[in-house]
Amino acid sequence: MRKVLLILILLKGSPLFSQYYLRGEVRDVLNQPIQGAKILLSSKGEFPFYSGSSGAFGIPTSLKVDTICFFADGFETLKTAVETSHYKVFTLQPASFKASITPVQLLSFTKDMVTNRPHYPATMGESYSITVENEFVETSHFPQTGYSVNVDRACYSNIRRFLNEKSKPPVDAVRLEEMLNYFNFSSGTKVEPNETFAATSLLTSCPWNKANQLLYVYLQAKKINLDHTPPSNLVFLIDVSGSMDLPNRLPLMKSAFKLLVENLRSKDTVSIVTYGGNVAIILQPTSGDNKQKIIEAIESMKPAGTTPGESAIRVAYKLAKNTFIKNGNNRIIIATDGDFNVGQTSEKELEELISQQKNLGINLTCLGVGMGNYKDSKLEALAKNGNGNFAYLDNEREAEKVLVEEFAQTLFTVASDVHLSVNFNPDVVKKYRLIGFDNKLDAIENINSEMKGGEVGSGHRLLSVFEITPTNKFQNPYNLMPDSINVAQLTLKYKQPQKKEEINKVINAPYNFKPLAQSDSIYRFASAVVMFGSLIKNSDFTKETDWDDVYNLAFSATNPNNGLQVEFLELVEKAKKIYGKKKKKKRPQSP
After folding, report:
1. Could you tell me which of 224, 222, 178, 196 has the C-alpha nearest to residue 463?
2. At 396, phi and psi to the nearest 5?
3. H-helix or E-strand containing 320?
4. Could you give the C-alpha distances from 468 to 46, 111, 365, 428, 513, in angstroms and in order?
5. Backbone angles phi, psi at 420, to 5 degrees
6. Cα distance between residue 410 and residue 398, in whole Å
7. In a structure prediction context, what are the per-residue pLDDT tens digits for the chain, which is 591 residues long?
8. What is the DSSP letter of 367?
9. What is the enclosing helix (H) or strand (E) of 283?
């Protein structure tokens, strides 16, 4: 009997013994429900709850009066006392921003184009930027387009995480250019001495629409000899808040940073800033040859407290500025689930904060982790506005890939503000669409938006693709065509580190058609990756294909010794089971 009483006393205050059940709704000023709003109740500590699709929520509590706090992107934070026995509707006010000094960034741009603007619902607990898929463009009206070249590849490992958990990835989590980037395809193209890039192109058949063709553009960046790279000034900015207290968060980050430390040299400098409840500098600037001291600092980190991301970012930039190395590699590496809840927390506020710092010559690398409250949209915004790159670590193997195998690509920049301008030949191309590089909805709607190039690291390879509808005389690609005919003319624009002038490199894309079945394996595998991502994205452009088509095409191109390609086949099979057998839908052939 005493044991039973003791257990009852210990359990008192738990959900089983809650006296009240707080129920309510979260709405905006137009009385529309807000889905996925993060809710913190004081009696529950840092454990978050989220509003459902109708804005409703229910939370058990033992208190008659509690304090509740709401967080949602685009809205002011609301904190208030609440009687837990009463049903209540909470109204969030739209966030008030100061006039932005930084234009909203586009990933791709076609002058005077108007695009449809579909809207997808938010994902419970996680946030993704709402994007608009690029549509076909009439070449006679808009022959020129362009897109920002970057080395981000977070999308693929994040999608892998969902599929391995036997769940469907959110539609807006799919960024096709990042999925192609992930595989770092090699075509054997070599960069000439004194050049920064080599480029080539291929025109091939389209596996999901027989009337169309695919134009692949391949870029290879020069590879830096690590023995000759400048010294690095690195600031590790690590989230140690309560939300990081899971095996796939802070422990994974510890493993990742310890792997990175093994590559440091004596001329490199490392500092460590943590934030969880408060912001602390746990390692003052330390030489890279003092690896044990750095590792001990990493091992000392323990998760607790709130997430004051804004203050931590300011401290990290100040520290990086104080230890700035002229003509060196100055970089902050932020590791977090992105779930900021103290200070400036919205994407626009964080974009503004980072934009104010980027002219200091300090780049930003973002490493995302976690699930359930992972804020992909915030980390993507930080990386793109901080002249940096972005990766998602779902396991230790991915951490090794990003920070060891692709160490130079991740940390050493060979070109910045890189973008490609494409001028299509209207005699050859009737219309075209850029696959991937989809813009955020708010960027399209903002009249001040502009396209800014990305950052490319040492040895990086970029494969991008257009789907084109050829003009009538080029409908039969097997006709012999003069070598002088170009599908398009490309202009690669970029800046080199420590130099201000822009370099323009003009590249012709010849009409060198080759059927996909006869093309190099990288183009066949890349086409399968595009189909895979498009099916997850529920794209209107791949209605005639299914998971078996993806698997068969990928299988024909897979190198059995390439672990990433073999894993891709496994993911396709998992996706087929999760999504079920897909019925093909006929779509009208392009006129």
Report:
1. 178
2. -65, -30
3. helix 309-322
4. 51, 18, 34, 9, 12
5. -115, 130
6. 13
7. 444 444 444 444 444 445 788 899 998 877 778 877 888 888 887 778 888 878 889 888 888 888 899 887 667 888 888 988 889 999 988 664 333 334 444 454 554 444 444 444 445 567 787 788 889 999 998 899 888 887 788 899 999 999 999 999 988 889 999 999 899 888 778 888 889 999 999 999 999 999 999 999 999 999 888 777 889 999 999 999 888 888 888 888 898 899 889 889 999 999 999 988 788 999 999 999 999 999 999 999 998 887 777 788 889 989 999 999 988 889 999 988 766 554 444 556 666 777 666 677 888 888 888 766 677 777 777 777 777 788 888 888 888 888 888 877 777 888 888 889 999 999 999 999 999 988 766 554 444 445 567 788 888 888 999 999 999 888 777 665 666 789 999 999 998 877 777 888 898 999 899 999 999 999 999 999 999 999 999 999 998 899 999 999 999 999 999 999 999 999 999 999 999 865 555 554 444
8. E
9. strand 278-287
Closest-CA residue to 492 (of 100, 184, 220): 220
Task: Give the C-alpha separation, 210 to 137, whole Å.
Answer: 18
Q: 303 to each of 126, 246, 344, how far by Cα in Å? A: 20, 9, 21
Are β-strands 105-106 and 450-451 bridged in parallel, bridged antiparallel, or unpaired? Answer: parallel
Q: How far is CA 179 from the centre of its chain?
A: 10
In sequence order, what E strands does 397-502 have? 413-424, 429-435, 439-440, 450-451, 454-457, 461-470, 486-495
* Identity at 104, one-letter amino acid code: V
Burial pattern 500-512, b for ≥16 Cβ within 10 A else e, equals: eeeeeeebebbbe
Strands 329-336 and 232-239, by their bridges, are parallel
Residue 391, amino acid: A
- At position 501, the amino acid (one-letter code) is E
Pair of tokens at residue 470: 């050829």
Which H or E element spans position 294?
A: helix 291-299
The C-alpha atoms of residue 486 and residue 591 are separated, in whole angstroms, by 22
Amino acid in the structure at residue 463? L
Q: Which residues pair with 454 in a beta bridge?
A: 418
Q: What is the 3-state secondary structure (H, E, C) of 194-218?
A: CCCEEEEEEEEECCCCCCCEEEEEE
DSSP class of residue 172? G
DSSP, collapsed to helix, strand or coil, labels residue 154 as: helix
Best CA proximity match to 274, nearest among 252, 246, 244: 244
CB 254 within 8 A of CB 236: no
State how far the Cα of 570 lies from the Cα of 163, in Å rounded to an integer.
10
Query: Dihedral of CA 150/206/159/251: which sign?
Result: negative
The gap between the terminal CA atoms of the chain, to the nearest Å, is: 82
Helix, strand or coil for residue 70?
strand
Q: How many helices (H) and strands (E) does the chain have?
A: 14, 29
| Nearest of 265, 270, 264 to residue 282 by alpha carbon | 270
